[in-house]
Amino acid sequence: MEESVILHRLESRLPGQKVQAIDELTGIVKVTGRLQFNNKLSLFSSFKRILQDEDLMLRTKCTKLICEILPKLGADMDTCMSFVMPNLLGNMAANNLVLKRESIKLIRCFSEITSDKNSLARSIIWEGIDNKDPAIAREVILTVDKLILNILQTEDCYNIVTALCKRHYLEDNKKVKKAIKDSFSSITAVISPNKMELPTSALSSGKELMSTFKSTEKPKAVFYKSSGLSHVNINKLEADSAISLEGKLLWDLIPDATLTRLHGEDIVEQIKAIAELESAIRRVSNPADFLICIEEICEAIIKVIPINNFRVFKASTVLVSTFVEVFREVIGDCVFPLTKALCHKIGDNKIAVREGTMKCLIQLMKVCGPRPVIDVVLVNFRDRNPRIREEAMNVVIKTLLTFPVQDLNVAVIADYFAVGLNDHRQRVANTALEGLTVLSQCLSPRESHIVYQAVEKVDSENKRFLAAIKER
User: Fold this and answer.
1) Helix (H) and strand (E) counts for the chain?
2) Is the overall model pTM greater than 0.90, yes or no?
3) Rounded distance, CA 235 to CA 222, Å?
């Protein structure tokens, strides 16, 4: 069956059409042992919407299908899974044991074969452990040892532990707190004692828990600086270049009164609180002192970005700019959430807001490199809002004109732009065509085949897009 027909059925509003398409794809995989589908990004974009469908049985079938084809996705696997990971984590809280079991099975299978385990760990933290829905957070926390068992055994697990501790300190829900305690017991059994001594004894009190992170005795991990970005290495407990966990916490930088006003409802007070926070950040002389609470500072900033008030947004862009500039050497773990928050503003109705967002994203790219920022922006190519799709493409075009193309994952960018050529909104399709044209101009003649191959995946019959790109 043609790919366009399958995609049309998967996007259909009729439940029967979706079930039929999933069953046919499953049958093909079982018979041939593989799924010959050129436009994998469009396929997984459809899967993303199906995993939110009201029919729980349909979600379960889709999850099983993804698990079958996962090992055969090749180089596109990480990109494809980035589409569906938030929904898979959300389905773990569904009232269906089969769906929950299949979601856990798929995530665990992905964790065993992915080459980018750090991105998976970040997704588990931001879309699971830190999820605003306590039901989703609780389910992910309880099963985190099963979801990423091999990461906990072989990789740096300190970020997971830190996220659990921070959630315990900030959480009011007793069920979530209990889940964190149970999760620590499971993680302790997985991690060998010579790696890290987990602060399980301090879980009875949030303040005691945070105090353990100020201590150099209990968590025996140490921070290391590498390539300008900070990360944690729990295998090396002693080194001359290490920075101990002794450091300042969030309230050493931001008074409680300022945080309260920052997240209040009074616009005038919010603007004043943003100015106070920006001034406090500007006075920081040694960013390494705040390594422990860097993500909490980032989280405080992120909460003011979505506020629909132009004066607040204008102040927040100054705050983001100052934060990125001052903490440029230790901002590594904040790039993903900060970019994700800014992307919500790229489709704003006001031109000034879109331009301010673009400037913040470009500054972030100059500090940490364009690739981690663009990886988040590309996901918005499939957003439901056509303006966000169009502006996300404009951000990538601006990046191509600003940074060397060698710093970017050109093949992935070409695939995303190629999918946009078939967008039902003409403005978005035209922007995608413009993006591919700019990309082909940035590449050398020997590399231009990357663009043509991406276009052929979505336009293999009449070659109209390919001809238009060559003509431009």
Assistant:
1) 25, 2
2) no
3) 9
Name the more confident of 289 and 460.
289
Q: What six digits make up the tokens of 317?
A: 């862009």
Nearest to 68 by CA among 47, 39, 87: 47
Answer yes or no: are the C-beta atoms of 205 and 221 closer than 8 Å: no
Non-local CB neighbours of 412 within 8 Å, separated by 6+ positions: 79, 375, 378
In this structure, how many other beta carbons lie within 10 angstroms of the beta carbon of residue 445?
7
Q: Do 392 and 346 contact (CB within 8 A), yes or no?
A: yes
Contact call for residues 143 and 92 (beta carbons, < 8 A): yes
100-132 confidence digits (pLDDT tens): 889 989 998 888 888 877 788 888 888 888 888
Which tens digits make up the pLDDT trace of 239-298? 332 333 334 555 567 777 777 888 788 889 889 888 888 888 888 888 877 776 787 788
As a whole number of angstroms, the distance between CA 53 and CA 15 comes to 9
Distance CA 83, CA 409 (A): 17
**CA atoms lying within 13 Å on the CB side of residue 203:** 21
CA 238/CA 46 separation, integer angstroms? 48
Q: What band does 64 get if pLDDT is binned at 50, 70 and 90? A: very high
CA-derived radius of gyration, the chain: 23
